[in-house]
UniProtKB/TrEMBL annotation:
Keyword vocabulary terms for this entry: Membrane, Transmembrane, Transmembrane helix
Annotated segments matching region Disordered: 235-276
Superkingdom classification of source: Bacteria
TM segment ranges: 18-40
Keyword presence, Transmembrane: yes
Descriptive protein name: Type 4a pilus biogenesis protein PilO
Gene Ontology biological-process entries: type IV pilus assembly; type IV pilus-dependent motility
Amino acid sequence: MKKINIDTLAIKQMVANFLVPLISLGLVTAIGFLVLYPTISNRPMYEEKLEASRALDEQLLTKLEKLNYLVDYKSAVDENNSLLSDVLAQKPLVPELLTQLDIIAKEAGLGVEKLSYSFGAGKDTAEGTLTDINVNMGIIGTYDQLVAFFRALEKAGRLVNVDNYRYTLTEDNALSINLTFSSPYVDVKTDAVTDDPIAFDISDTKFVSLMSSLKEFKVYRISVDDYIEVPATPEIPTQQGEQPLDAPAEVGVLQQPGGAEAPAQVPVVPTEEPLN
């Protein structure tokens, strides 16, 4: 019987020549399934992100152009900002508000009998927190004086809404009037957001018309410099062996143009040595 010689080396080489390509093909298929397929399936999402990035880029370029325009007209922007701050205050400024109402009432010939205030609930807006200052005012005078008061209040710089009013006749046929006002102020948010667009245009006709109308309002400039300090009174005498008490604080009186006194008052603390 003739013996058959099998070349095992040749068989191994042949198997290797087929096996390596098959393994490589399997690896390529696995990589394509694990890497390429998710990429292809997520293509709509990537395209949407690309469009959003392009839109943001155009928005930022537009914002940059508007900011450069505002910088070029900085003086006009500052003037407009001052006008808007006079109408809608960014702080409570309660003494200024009460003094303004008192001045307007007395300029109309009315007598001020009472003046009080309270804060309303704040409302969050996109620009900041809007809060009302509620004012209750009691005045006495004639009908013509009341009309003059309302007209002057309408032309006053700071925004004041008349919520309610009641009146009765006194024995001498004068009107005793009780008024309720609300004056809003906004606590502006100062957090800068890069991708927020600039939603106004200082050259817009409506904006220019609004600024022109605000310039016609009468702004009451009231500051601490308008107060006059009265010299401090001497210390209150005390009995022997007792520590001296501080004398009561004097009061600064706001002077109106012409020398008339307004009821708005600010305590002035006398310069005395502190208690031990």
